[in-house]
Amino acid sequence: MKLTDTTDFLSWLQPRIPLLEHLGVERLDWDGQTLEIPTPLAPNVNDKGTGFGGSQAAIATVAGWCLTTLCLKERGLECDVVIADSHLQYLKPVTGDFVTRVSLDDVADADALVARIGERGKGKLKLVAEVLCGGQTCMRLEGMYVAIRR
Predict the structure, then answer these.
(1) Of the candidates 77, 74, 57, 70, which has an alpha carbon nearest to the alpha carbon of residue 142?
(2) Per the database record, which ranges form the Thioesterase putative domain (predicted)?
């Protein structure tokens, strides 16, 4: 399995989700199991000088969507991916530039998703995305992503 070039993927994604440019997303780091999205605080600041909760929610949601899409693309599937359910926990204020990280618990989870899509034309993947600042988890999103074969 060849890893997707994240520069090309981001170039493809930005016109489709213009919010990413406004959030200041300039790169994605992907190793086949974990996706990290470094994000500057400046365009995501609130009136208190800390990270705006809506920006954190948006970037965490997109991170799970990207991981799901990348996993499927690398396994030869083109699917429509949506978030079906999410739960957010804001644990600490974001006080500087931050990184959003989402990982597969096990690469077999992606293989199981592909198998379900093969059998039923759709499948679900549960993911946890965390917004990290200064080495601490500031926000956590638990999300259920649904992929539907095109």
Answers:
(1) 57
(2) 12-148
The overall longest dimension of the chain from CA atoms, in Å, is 49
Q: What is the Cα–Cα distance from 138 to 56, expressed in whole angstroms?
A: 9
Residue 1 domain-assigned (yes or no):
no
CATH number of residue 113's parent domain = 3.10.129.10
> What is the DSSP-derived secondary structure letter of residue 41?
S
**Is the pTM of the predicted complex or chain greater than 0.90?**
yes
Considering its fold, how many domains does the chain have in total?
Answer: 1
Please, what is the Cα angle at 22 between 34 and 101, to 5 degrees? 15
Q: Are 116 and 71 in contact (CB under 8 A)?
A: no
pLDDT tens, position by position, 69-114: 999 999 999 999 999 999 999 999 999 999 999 999 888 899 999 9
Cβ proximity of 72 and 81 under 8 Å: yes
